[in-house]
Design goal:
4-stranded parallel beta sheet; about 40% helix; alpha/beta
Length: about 325
């Protein structure tokens, strides 16, 4: 009986892999795409772009900050996005390669953004500028500019869900949910909205688990390594094992705090051949603040405790400034 179940699952994986075109590509693919006049979008902040980028790549600044409202972390008004992308010559319907720094979620946000506005020929260069430079490929300091285009963007409802749609899908056996946040966020210890906790039925797989070494950022911070090479993706078979609890043919919704980390996991699932992947863009910021939305492991943000700690921190800062001023006066 186990063998009868296992074989269809293998067939599903194989069929999905054949049907799907790659979402995540390497440097050779990027070079070939450039040769056929694809758009290359560098989503890093302008200062990083100015220090060196793939020749011909365009940049609008830190893409998530430019295209999202800083409070809700949802997309800004579509007409504003039309002007920003149009001025940069970024047409979602053109073949586009999106890249940034290796392993970061920002290029996947770019992928999601273009798919959200109708793009279907978009790829992510996961290993990014570091891999490009390490391979000895051309790095440019010149600002690239494409001819501006007039855009009339239409939202693709098949790539995202709203909070209302998320609630409506709870307990639906044809829907599976991935929580890409940290375990502490998932169990409600790390509260980043009015409530902590998670969406009922969600399975927690932090997005860093997609990498060869999920501890790389911590190691970089502790100066245990100088390379972000550990943020390269795991091999395909390892990634399939990571998501083996999920059916690639079912609707799969990914969320995190604001849709950012979720966009990377969504891109990985697309690469693995999942055929119906959606990002819950408002994610826990929207869900946790919707108090009538069912949730598990619910904890609440203690405003009084937060204000008390903030006040104590301010008092300490004031004291340090006073001591510093006195020390300067005595010199």
């Amino acid at each position: 009986m186990k063998r009868l179940i296992f074989i269809p699952l293998l067939i599903l994986w194989a069929q999905a892999a054949v049907a799907a075109s790659p979402t995540i590509v390497d440097g050779d693919h990027v070079a070939a795409a450039i040769a056929r006049n694809a758009v290359v979008w560098d989503v890093r902040p302008a200062a990083a772009y100015a220090k060196g980028h793939i020749a011909g790549a365009i940049n609008i600044g830190d893409a998530p900050k430019v295209l999202r409202d800083e409070n809700t972390e949802d997309f800004i008004a579509t007409d504003r996005i039309e002007k920003i992308l149009g001025a940069a010559g970024l047409d979602p319907h053109r073949e586009t390669i999106v890249y940034g720094s290796r392993g970061t979620w920002n290029p996947y946000f770019g992928l999601y953004a273009l798919q959200y506005f109708g793009g279907s020929n978009v790829r992510v260069y996961h290993d990014g500028i570091e891999d490009w430079a390490a391979a000895g490929r051309a790095i440019s300091l010149d600002t690239a500019q494409l001819p501006p285009v007039a855009l009339k963007l239409e939202i693709n409802p098949t790539v995202a869900v709203t909070t209302k749609e998320m609630v409506a899908r709870l307990n639906d056996p044809n829907v599976q949910i991935v929580d890409a946040r940290t375990p502490q966020e998932f169990i409600g210890e790390d509260i980043r909205a009015i409530r902590g906790g998670h969406v009922p039925g969600a399975i927690n797989i932090p997005y860093e688990q997609n990498w060869i070494d999920p501890e790389t950022p911590a190691k970089l911070a502790r100066k245990q390594t100088t390379s972000n090479g550990g943020m390269s993706l795991k091999g395909t078979e390892d990634l399939k094992r990571l998501y083996s609890r999920f059916d690639p043919s079912k609707e799969t919704i990914v969320y995190c705090q604001s849709g950012a980390r979720a966009s990377e996991t969504a891109g990985v699932l697309q690469q693995l051949g999942f055929t119906n992947v959606k990002v819950y863009d408002s994610s826990w910021l929207g869900y946790g603040n919707t108090l009538d939305a069912p949730a598990n492991n619910v904890t609440f943000f203690n405003v009084g405790l937060f204000n008390s700690r903030l006040s104590a921190l301010q008092d300490r800062l004031n004291q340090l400034e006073k001591e510093l001023a006195e020390a300067r006066a005595q010199k």
